[in-house]
Design goal:
single chain, 293 residues, mainly alpha, globular
Length: 293
């Protein structure tokens, strides 16, 4: 079963990445308006997007910290940041999005973390990510009812998190900190929404913020089926299929995603330079080895 899953992921990477590249090239050749849109990207916008992505990394660091709190571990802020940065770099440039596996191995080695607990905490994060993303996706339909639905959902989660049955199922998780993880996930999605809105406005100035909100919801949900670095190919498919909700043209989607990939790769290169420039990798390994002894 494990071999079949690995084979499936390898096959998906081998097939989807080249296919997406071919589609992008053909679309780029037959749609000169996309080239025109990208031609007008300013350095100021590029700097703004890097700043917003750094905010997203900060929120993701808070997310890492909150996930460990659920597992009854309290890591230092610097360690949470280095672990987040290293995971992000490995997840994109490494084979088969191996960032989460690296983080799990590191935490197991340093803190003797129960991997079952870590998986449970990760599932809580994915649940919040999915709930918030669905809310964004349906915001154009729900409008002001969305606020009421969100309040009801939070109250429901609060009540359920204190039920004996759930406490027994997640006995080794500290569910008192679920709202930390909820807040971290909300901040991360808020930063991503601002990123996408800035990118969309740069290539299609008439884009409304409400459209960017729906767009973000669709893009985020691609996480659940993504088998490629940065969800290449899968994110674009989700965005195209949800056109009737956000009403953003395919040419704008392609242009905005090309811009997003470029900025994100630059950010990851900056993080990689920081990691190796400050010997962060050695610090993580040494920290884990020291704790183990």
């Amino acid at each position: 079963m494990q071999m079949n899953r690995r084979l499936l992921k390898k096959t998906a990477v081998i097939v989807v990445l080249p296919l997406t590249a071919v589609i992008f090239v053909r679309f780029f050749m037959h749609h000169p308006e996309v080239r025109d849109q990208l031609h007008h990207i300013s350095f100021g916008l590029f700097a703004l997007l890097i700043f917003l992505y750094l905010l997203a990394i900060a929120a993701l660091t808070f997310n890492t910290y909150s996930t460990l709190l659920l597992c009854n571990l309290k890591a230092k802020t610097q360690e949470s940041f280095l672990l987040t940065a290293y995971t992000a770099v490995i997840n994109f440039f490494g084979p088969l999005q191996s960032g989460p596996a690296f983080r799990a191995v590191y935490l197991k080695k340093k803190y003797n973390l129960n991997l079952k607990n870590y998986v449970g905490a990760t599932l809580v994060y994915l649940a919040f990510w999915g709930i918030f993303s669905v809310f964004l996706l349906l915001s154009s339909l729900l409008k002001w009812w969305l606020i009421a639905l969100a309040v009801v959902m939070l109250v429901f989660i609060f009540v359920v998190s204190r039920t004996p049955q759930l406490k027994d199922r997640f006995a080794n998780l500290n569910l008192r900190y679920w709202y930390y993880l909820a807040a971290a996930t909300a901040l991360q999605i808020a930063a991503v929404t601002l990123i996408y809105y800035s990118e969309l406005r740069s290539v299609a100035p008439a884009t409304h913020f409400s459209q960017a909100v729906v767009y973000t919801g669709a893009a985020n949900l691609a996480l659940y089926v993504s088998l490629t670095p940065g969800a290449i190919g899968f994110r674009e498919s989700f965005l195209v299929f949800s056109h009737h909700l956000h009403h953003i043209s395919n040419s704008t989607i392609v242009a905005a995603n090309i811009l997003d990939r470029a900025v994100y790769i630059v950010l990851l290169l900056m993080l990689a330079m920081y990691i190796f420039g400050t010997h962060a990798r050695q610090k993580l390994i040494a920290s884990a080895a020291k704790n183990k002894t």
